[in-house]
Design brief:
With about 350 residues, the protein is α/β, with parallel strands linked by helices. It folds into two domains: about 200 residues, Alanine racemase (TIM Barrel, Alpha-Beta Barrel), CATH 3.20.20.10; about 120 residues, Lyase, Ornithine Decarboxylase, Chain A, domain 1. The protein has eleven helices and 19 strands. α1 crosses α3.
Amino acid sequence: MRPIQARISLGALAHNLRIARNHAGRARIFAVVKANAYGHGLSRARRALASADGFAVLTLEEAANLRLMGVQQPILLLEGLFGADEIATCSELDLWPVLHHAAQLDWLQRLPPARPIQVFLKFDSGMHRLGFPLEEHASIVKRVRNLPGVAGVTLMTHFAQADEAVGVDWQLQPFLREMAEHALPWSSANSAALLRYPEAQGTWVRPGLMLYGASPFAEVSAEELELRPVMTLQSEIISVQTLKAGEAVGYGQLYRADHAMRVGVVACGYADGYPQNAPTGTPIVVNGRLTRTIGRVSMDMLTVDLDGCADAGVGAPVVLWGEGLPVDSVAAAARTSSYELLCALAARVSVQETD
């Protein structure tokens, strides 16, 4: 059997939820489990995050699967309704859609559900992605509160720079100022805002990345935030080559040895979810020692520098990210994000659950 495997720690997931709870104060937590729980598996995340106050997903299918798994907590649909035909299902399964454009309000007015539903009403406070214009809040809130199919309203916005030095005030303060007159519950905090800005907690918080053990901040490590890695991507050395000074390795011959050296070939490539653009120097752990990748990442293999790993031969264990090597470090070297790496884990990689 090909040796590449992803180990998913349910204990780490539960631990990271406790860290989120410590920061949330009295706010309730929607655990964000969209995109197959950021590549970790929806069913696994549901079990490990069972004490969350609710779950947030992207699609009706994800929400329905959670209900089939026995989830009884509120389920938030982050992009809301994609068509009027989904209203009845939201009512039947007690799903809470985010409403962010006028057509969704028209659908609810035309086809009110038999059992009214809770909705989140999203306003654009500066990200300019989804949401009603903030300056139109009075008429929109009034309209939604008067819809016969709506049982309750929570106000919502989303931050564009909570993970950066500029912070959230430029969005949060106008949002709170404009929404104060409605005296309704509200939600704004993602992982970064939850960890750094207690004033953004509101009634509900929506942690995602932090639950999976990665840091939302470039300058603060997950370990400093007391987060534990949930996914460990591991494999083995399947071949060892010896390069002479001047010889190169891999497609394009991008890495050329300046001295005689041993090179390990690892059973992992971009078809497994490892970033193809990871350059020479991307950190990797071989036999418990930190070393580096060299040359171009192939579809099924990559190569590593075995200088300093004298005892590493065929069969030596390799950690591509996870325990002992933060996914954030690999993402930074590859000039991508930990979000992308975790979500990109390929279906062909076998998965093992651990406590």
